[in-house]
TrEMBL record:
It is an enzyme of class 3 (hydrolase). This is 4-nitrophenylphosphatase. GO terms for molecular function: alkaline phosphatase activity; metal ion binding; phosphoglycolate phosphatase activity; phosphoprotein phosphatase activity. GO terms for cellular component: cytoplasm. It comes from Suhomyces tanzawaensis NRRL Y-17324.
Length: 319
């Protein structure tokens, strides 16, 4: 099946049954698909339990680097996913750390972080020394004479992701590392998302806004390790032994999730399902469908399927 110009709307029992027949493996985005902040999207626990009861493999791929895999396990359990295991979640803090080795940065090395606890914890778990990030000494107002502003020459990489502690001390220091040694230290960005859907209908700044800030300031290009990176998908497919033609990506964002599934050649020609519980509204999709053919490859961001909420899966199936 190829990507149609208009996605197929999943509303009836036969549509849901077709998904079950067509796919063995389901990749789920988290923010806007499974939850909004700490609020579970109704029906998601039942939907995942149903898929697993039918022998389907389920993994979660999130561009949100604020939590480590261990912290995601706690969150999934807290929200009712009782049998959830660490191997089922791929946050970009983990992807960022997994990339270090290939960039020649070996465990034991010092890595500078502009980001939240997830990146710090994954670095430590990978055997790296994490600097910056959540260090509370950086919470103070900018002072050019502060000893912390001295660059540590042993730092071998910089990872930038979302942070709720975005202040001038942190960005000024991060800039020093990005410029250090003739801009030779690898610059990893955890994601490209501008925003993410928060609780109470709030649209909140996401990691991509922080990464882009640093990219512009340092006049450097970062390596994006998150969706829609095809290398990220290759790793997930290989680690789980998934058959791409029997794999579906479910997400709420066109330029990350849907592009990830389409560019990654999931499904038999296409394997992406957009839900409308997060950042994308029907009018955004309509706009995309009317873009000129040559506009930044609109097909790569066109989902094969669309569904109001994946949480409706079991209800639709039961009629
Ligand atoms: C939006 C994104 O999370 P995801 O939707 O990939 O779980 C993020 O928090 O930057
Ligand atoms: Mg999302």
């Amino acid at each position: 099946m190829t990507i149609s110009s208009s996605p197929i709307k999943i509303t009836a029992r036969e549509h849901v049954q077709a998904l079950l027949d067509q796919y063995d493996n389901f990749l789920f985005d988290c923010d806007g698909v499974v939850w909004l902040g700490e609020t579970l999207i109704p029906g998601m626990v039942e939907a995942i339990e149903y898929l697993e009861s039918k022998g389907k493999k389920v993994v979660f791929v999130t561009n949100n680097s604020s939590k480590s895999r261990d912290e995601y396990v706690e969150k999934f359990h807290r929200l009712g996913f009782k049998s959830f295991r660490k191997q089922q979640v791929y946050p970009t803090c983990y992807a960022a750390v997994s990339n270090l080795d290939q960039l020649g940065v070996q465990p034991g090395a010092k890595v500078w972080v502009l980001g939240d606890a997830g990146i710090m914890h994954e670095l430590k778990e990978g055997g790296y020394q994490a600097l910056g990030g959540t260090d509370t000494r950086l919470n103070q107002a900018f002072d050019p004479d502060h000893p912390l502003l001295e660059v540590d020459p042993e730092v071998q990489a910089v990872i930038v992701g979302s942070t709720k502690d975005f202040n001038y001390m942190r960005i000024a220091l991060t800039l020093q590392y990005l410029l250090h040694n003739n801009k030779s230290i690898p610059f990893i960005g955890a994601n490209i998302d501008r925003t993410y859907p928060g609780p109470h209908g709030l649209i909140l700044p996401a990691g991509g806004s922080v990464v882009s800030y640093m990219e512009y300031t340092a006049n450097r290009t970062f390596l994006n390790v998150g969706k829609p990176s095809t290398q990220f998908l290759d790793t997930i497919v290989a680690e789980n032994g998934f058959d791409r033609s029997r794999t579906l990506m479910v997400g709420d964002t066109l330029y990350t999730d849907i592009k990830f599934g389409n560019d990654g050649k999931l499904g038999a020609g296409a394997g992406s399902l957009l839900v409308l519980t997060g950042g994308t509204k029907p009018e955004d999709l309509a706009h995309l469908l009317h873009l000129p053919e040559d506009y930044e490859d609109p097909h790569s961001m066109t989902p094969l399927y669309v569904m109001d909420s994946f949480g409706a899966f079991v209800d639709i199936l039961k009629g």
